[in-house]
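The instructor's notes for this session suggest beginning with a concrete chain rather than abstract definitions. Hand out the sequence below and ask the class to guess, before any prediction is shown, which regions might be ordered.
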Amino acid sequence: MMQFPKIIQGGMGVGVSNWRLANAVSKLGQLGVVSGTALDSLFVRRLADGDPGGNMRRGLDAFPFPEMANRIWEEYYVSGGKAEGKPYPLPPMHQRRDLRKVVELCIVSNFVEVYLARDGQKNAVGINFLEKVQMPHLSSIYGAMLAGVGYVLMGAGIPLHIPGVLDAFAAQQPAEYRLAVIGAAQDADTAMRFDPADYIDGPLPVLDRPRFLAIVSSNTLATTMLRRASGRVDGLVIESPTAGGHNAPPRGKLLLNTAGEPVYGERDQVDIAGLRALGVPFWLAGGYGNAKSVRFALDQGAAGVQVGTAFAFTRESGLRPDLKQTLIAQATTGTGEVFTDPVASPTGFPFKVALLQGSYSDPEVAAARTRVCDIGLLRESYATPEGKIGYRCSAEPVANYVAKGGMVEDTVGRKCLCNALMANIGYQQVRKDGSVEPALVTIGDDLNTVAQFLAPGRTSYSAADVVASLLSLTADAVTDEEPVYATA
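After discussion, reveal the predicted structure:
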């Protein structure tokens, strides 16, 4: 593999950027990336479905500590798969001090995903985490490093402490990560701690330190990461507001357009010359999913681009086939619609969704869903009156949230992204009343451009088709002509 890839395949959602997609992209000499979000819950559901194809078992067989792997298998594997209509099992929700079984599940599930992404090909793969999903960080990163992950990418916040965690694990040392706790005293101990020696039998393995790429939205945040991070930052991914998933809020006062979307202005534009002056590799993201934009990024001094939307619809991605087909059909007619929802995410970050009738973006579907929080990755930590740490989610039942000190106005319009993103990839939870969790597809503003990857007469395309198309102009002469970006 080249020193730095020109194409980084985005780490999208829960399980969309799965091991199959990352494996396919890395085989081509670019950087395939698995999503690290909710891998423990996803792993449990794969086992509950009977592990079709035997790939989870293959990953478990490669895990260096068989007793831990077997404990996970024995607890969650269902031979032949669970009965249709029966709910998926729910592992315990994360907390600052996780149960041992929760930590082991995180270690194993992250190992398996990275192992499968690397299996059968020699190039590096990456894993993408969200800064705001803090409680699984330490055990998840350790599991990925056990599998030899080459890059760790993190955004949706300012991940200042992650480089130091990577350094500690590479040095066979324990690591700490300070949990953000609302209302906690300044001197309160909110650190999460992970000592590999507590979980590993025998000598600790020697692990390579993966490269760390911070995903940021501005020159200011890029500079902050390089100056204040707890260890080496190897590169930056600069993500514009047109990218899918969580977007950084606009700088300054929040203004909404007539459709109810956040308005981004000049202060949200990135100064590429300023990025070059920082002296580290950087990749541009958000609206760069075409050959012309790739060439432009390289001509401006970027190491390359990060592309998500184009890869989300490949045959290898984890997105449900029916959702792929519907959205690709819309893209071919130019009728796909994407809405930047300012309130959907419990994180408070704007969240980009495809408008699909019958999905969670449909107001009738959203109104009919009973509020429940049973995965809990987007819960916020807060200090209780007794000085302990509590957990609440603005998408949980309103009365519960308010009883925990939350403000009722913060619950308006919130959606359960944890369950919705599971539904996007075919692991939708079934409720006791027979209802099924709806999907909520997150995708970039350039949704309608994915039709460019379809060969004549075809309704699907592969990761190789995307890579070939994106790199098709990289040998052309330098140009100052700016690309055309997707607009909100």
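Then share the key points. The first strand starts at residue 7 and ends at 9. Confidence is low (pLDDT under 50) at residues 476-488.
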